[in-house]
Amino acid sequence: MNCVTIKSDEVSECLHDHPYFSRFPMEVLKAISSNVVRIHLVPDQVFTPSEDNAKSIYLIHHGTIVIHGAKNQAVTKLGAGELLEMGAFIDEKSGKPQTVIAKSLDEVLMFQIFMDNIAKYASNEEFVNALDVPSTGDRLRRALERRQQENTPQSGNFLTMPVKSLIKREPISMSENDSIRDVAKAMMKNRVSCMLLTKNSKLSGIVTDRDLRCRVLGGGVSRKQPVSKIMTASPMTIDINAYGFEVLMLMSHNNIHHVPVLMKGKPAGVITNTNMQQCQTTSSVFMVGDAYKRKSVSGLRMIAKRVPELMSGLVQGGASPHATGQMVTTVTDAINIRILQIAEKKLGPPPVPYAWMVAGSQGRQEQTALSDQDNCLVLDNAYDPVKHGDYFKEFSQFVCSGLNEAGYVFCPGDIMAQNNKWRKPLKKWKKYFNKWVTEPKPDALMNASTFFDLRFVHGEQGLAKSLNKHVRKLCSQNSLFLSILARNSIQFHPPLSIFKNLVLIKGGENDKTIDLKSKGIIPIVELARVYALNDVSDPVNTRDRLIAAADGKEISRSDALDLKDALKFISLTRLRHQARQVDSGQTPNNFLPINELSLFERNHLKDAFTQIQTMQSSLERRYNI
């Protein structure tokens, strides 16, 4: 065994990345590390506890060790970033110390940290509190708090700035009974592009310079008329305590350019697209607006190419994974809708109403960069395949091919509206779900994982609402199906070994990586879907489903919070990985090389994956799986 006293800086940096010690100030960590011994163990070397060992704790910096009991059986396994407390490894039956054996292919490196040295610089109570972490969920919350501090964007980044800091001037408002002429003069005098309109001091509408051009000059409305004749009544608003990314979401999703800000129900200002442009030139609100102006699929392709850049900018700007997913998906929706509009212009109005529905990550509003497409058509029950079949066949082929050309490639599983199976009237869709739920065969479960995440994008929304209502009622009456769906959901195992070490992909182009999507995010998506269907809740977004599950008492609030934090940490790690790839000119993927992970990230990914395992075990007990 090779023991060497080392400088404190190397150890203090390691401790700073450790979930237990990261709560200490750096100056304390440096003091604690001032008398630390570095220990090297060669493969299969035995390290037996002694009285001196019991007064120390060991931080494994590199390699793996296995703890053996009195009968030489393996008790537990520890890897890089984990703590070994020698005094705690006493066999309960024999009272004898257990044996530590190095089990790495290469040497093991441990840092011996003396308890006396810790006590000298930090009170025992402080140290105990630092080590006494009650749950993986608590550690994840601390990790996310630290990530948030590290990711605090520069002042001026609007994503995480409060709305009140984005307001450029005091609100200017007039009565909705004032004449159009007076309102126009006031807008010119104050050099504003819109005017807030009130009734009894409450916001009742908004008029913009475009309204004046189109509805007065172009529409022939007299300037003597009250401005209420041309105003947009009950406009979409945002609260003054909201954040910049929420304004961006509202503007992007609804393709609007002026958002009144309210404080206790009264006008407090206006956020305009000019405000947004001054803050960030590449954002979803401009990409959405640009999409609706494009007249060809090739033009939409140019917008889709900027999606990875948008995602990277959001990550660097400090946006949460939830906000990032929603904003990226909003751009996809806009491109999708514009292709549908182009198709209608080319082929003529649809002969019967339709609802264009999307599934997968787009359906859940969780997209990160370009992905494949998952969609279907729900047609009105008046649909006649003889009279209307040719139109909708050509229509769906045009849209799916357009999405593919724009960068949203064809679904490998052929779950697209151009497949006749997924282009049916409402009554047929209800029969589909009836069969899937009442006869839950393997193909039914596969369809369930896709079509239970459907979200309406364009067309006749009433068709989507009718289908959703039918599905919720159907699931609430079929506990057997939910039990089978739950059994299927826990087949998606997080990448942890029996000793809670990260399990990497071996061989191939993704050698020594972790698939953060299929091994981390999808297991949570599956769990949340089961909760949502059992609770017949509306959301399809995974985070929103977890919140709804807690509200509906499907799971406890603490479990929902822990799982939501696990989703957030894994998603944030994935987004950072993809942002690095985009910035270096690579195509973003879900495979994270282990060498990209810091000690901090490795430890907390283990916590996140452990939380998934805990909730999967809970679901097993609930459904007696």
Essential attributes:
single chain, 625 residues, alpha+beta, Jelly Rolls, CBS-domain, 3 domains, 5-stranded antiparallel beta sheet, 4-stranded antiparallel beta sheet, 23 helices, 16% strand, globular
**Class inferred from helices and paired strands:** alpha+beta
Amount of helix: 40-55%
Radius of gyration: 29 Å
Largest sheet: 5 strands, antiparallel
The overall pLDDT, averaged over residues, is 83
Beta strands, count: 22
How large is the count of helical segments?
23
Spatial gap, N to C terminus: 48 Å
Q: Approximately how much beta-strand content do the residues carry?
A: 15-25%
What's the number of domains?
A: 3
What strand order characterises the main sheet?
Answer: 1-2-9-4-7
Q: What coarse outline follows from CA principal-axis ratios?
A: globular
Low-confidence stretches: 130-134, 152-156
Provide a descriptive summary of the structure in words.
The structure is a single chain. The protein is of the alpha+beta class. The protein has three domains: 2-132, Jelly Rolls, CATH 2.60.120.10; 158-279, CBS-domain (Roll); 300-622, no CATH class. The protein contains 23 helices and 22 strands. 41% of the residues are buried.
Quick structural summary:
This protein is of the alpha+beta class. The protein contains 23 helices and 22 strands. It folds into three domains: 2-132, Jelly Rolls (Sandwich), CATH 2.60.120.10; 158-279, CBS-domain; 300-622, no CATH class.
